[in-house]
Every structure is written in structure tokens, then in C-alpha cells.
């Protein structure tokens, strides 16, 4: 059985609402320290935050649409790296994915990877709810070929929805432990979080981390 501390250390404690304030980000960081989460994940404009000891700093890139030019995504990632982030979660170009231009998808991921030193963890958001199973597999393969460290289900902003157990399992099967799998989007209770882990998620993106963790004992 997963303990509260173990689950906490899998969580990117997240605040990506456009209206989020610096005070709210500061409170997010404080709460991350209290809960023992792996990191906080915030917007690129809000990286100037005091982190508790042991808490990593993650941000997003090409968020939330993914429809930015590859050069713009790379520049955004480089700027965040210069600001001291430990991890970057980039969104793929879904338009390229939907027409099967996997070389194009791989190339833009590679451009962001080049902008991120190897010590910076690169997660690739494939927006799994908007893709077919075949497209999910292809997106994971393109991410791996481009040098990503993780594949991630969702931004949490797409109308198609967030993470599903089925998508997480398919992603985990495709990357075979060579990459991490992050489940995010719509995970609001303990049972759902544990189901994602059981399906193969190695990281969780949560905004309501406390509510999820309160369902577990130490």
C-alpha cells in the first residue's frame, strides 16, 4: 500500500491558473513544504519564489495550447532554465499530431530538449484525451526519440478532458520504464490518484494535493 509520504513525493503541487498571484504561489510553496511534495509547478512568469528545502521547481512551456512555434517554445524553456527551474513541462503541437506529422512533433520536442541541459527534467504533455490510442503511442515514441524524460497526459485545460487510467496504462506500456509517466488533469481524490499510480504513473500533477493526501495514513 502506498503511504502518504510516498504519494506526496510523487506530486508536482500545481498552480497554473492565469489569475494566480505571487502571494498564492508563495502559499503553494509553503504548502508543498508542509505536505512533502516533490515539486511545485507554476507559470514561467512566477518563478521568483522561495522554495522550502527539498522542493523542486517546475514550470510549463508552450502552455496550454501547444500551438506555439518550436523556436518560441525553445526560447521560453531556455528563459525558465536561466531562472533556475529543475523541470519543464512542454505541450506538443496537437495540430501536427492529428495529421500524423510525428517527425514534426519530434523535432519541436528536440528543440526544447536542446534548450534544456540534461540536468533539467523535460516532460512532454501529449494531451492524451484529445488523441486516439494510436496517436498516444506515436506521441510517446516521438517524445522518447527526442530525448524527453517523461510523458505527461494533460494540461488540465483541454475541453477533451484530463488523465484517464487507460491512457496512463497505454503510455506506461509504450515507454516501458525508460521514461517516467506523469498523470495530470482531473485527479481530485485519493482513489483516482492511486489508480493512476497502479496504472503506471510515476508522477502526479495535482492542484488539490492536500485533499488527495488526506485519504492516506502516514
UniProtKB/TrEMBL annotation:
<dbReference type="Pfam" id="PF01791">
    <property type="entry name" value="DeoC"/>
</dbReference>
<dbReference type="InterPro" id="IPR002915">
    <property type="entry name" value="DeoC/FbaB/LacD_aldolase"/>
</dbReference>
<feature type="active site" description="Proton donor/acceptor">
    <location>
        <position position="182"/>
    </location>
</feature>
<comment type="pathway">
    <text>Carbohydrate degradation; 2-deoxy-D-ribose 1-phosphate degradation; D-glyceraldehyde 3-phosphate and acetaldehyde from 2-deoxy-alpha-D-ribose 1-phosphate: step 2/2.</text>
</comment>
<keyword id="KW-0704">Schiff base</keyword>
<comment type="function">
    <text>Catalyzes a reversible aldol reaction between acetaldehyde and D-glyceraldehyde 3-phosphate to generate 2-deoxy-D-ribose 5-phosphate.</text>
</comment>
<dbReference type="InterPro" id="IPR028581">
    <property type="entry name" value="DeoC_typeI"/>
</dbReference>
<feature type="active site" description="Proton donor/acceptor">
    <location>
        <position position="89"/>
    </location>
</feature>
<comment type="similarity">
    <text>Belongs to the DeoC/FbaB aldolase family. DeoC type 1 subfamily.</text>
</comment>
<protein>
    <recommendedName>
        <fullName>Deoxyribose-phosphate aldolase</fullName>
        <ecNumber>4.1.2.4</ecNumber>
    </recommendedName>
</protein>
<keyword id="KW-0963">Cytoplasm</keyword>
<keyword id="KW-0456">Lyase</keyword>
<dbReference type="InterPro" id="IPR013785">
    <property type="entry name" value="Aldolase_TIM"/>
</dbReference>
<dbReference type="InterPro" id="IPR011343">
    <property type="entry name" value="DeoC"/>
</dbReference>
<feature type="active site" description="Schiff-base intermediate with acetaldehyde">
    <location>
        <position position="152"/>
    </location>
</feature>
Amino acid at each position: 500500500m502506498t503511504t502518504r509520504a510516498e504519494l506526496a513525493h510523487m506530486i508536482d503541487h500545481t498552480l497554473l491558473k492565469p489569475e494566480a498571484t505571487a502571494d498564492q504561489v508563495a502559499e503553494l510553496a509553503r504548502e508543498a513544504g508542509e505536505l512533502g511534495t516533490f515539486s511545485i509547478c507554476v507559470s514561467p512568469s512566477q518563478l521568483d519564489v522561495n522554495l522550502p528545502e527539498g522542493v523542486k521547481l517546475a514550470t510549463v512551456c508552450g502552455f496550454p495550447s501547444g500551438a506555439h512555434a518550436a523556436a518560441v517554445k525553445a526560447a521560453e524553456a531556455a528563459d525558465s532554465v536561466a531562472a533556475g527551474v529543475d523541470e519543464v513541462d512542454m505541450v506538443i503541437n496537437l495540430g501536427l499530431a492529428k495529421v500524423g506529422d510525428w517527425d514534426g512533433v519530434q523535432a519541436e520536442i528536440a528543440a526544447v530538449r536542446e534548450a534544456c541541459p540534461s540536468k533539467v527534467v523535460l516532460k512532454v504533455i501529449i494531451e492524451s484525451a484529445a488523441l486516439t490510442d494510436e496517436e498516444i503511442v506515436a506521441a510517446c515514441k516521438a517524445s522518447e526519440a527526442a530525448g524527453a524524460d517523461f510523458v505527461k497526459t494533460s494540461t488540465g485545460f483541454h475541453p477533451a478532458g484530463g488523465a484517464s487510467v487507460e491512457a496512463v496504462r497505454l503510455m506506461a506500456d509504450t515507454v516501458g520504464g525508460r521514461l517516467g509517466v506523469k498523470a495530470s488533469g482531473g485527479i481530485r481524490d485519493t482513489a483516482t490518484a492511486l489508480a493512476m499510480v497502479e496504472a503506471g504513473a510515476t508522477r502526479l500533477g495535482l492542484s488539490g494535493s492536500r485533499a488527495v493526501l488526506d485519504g492516506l495514513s502516514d
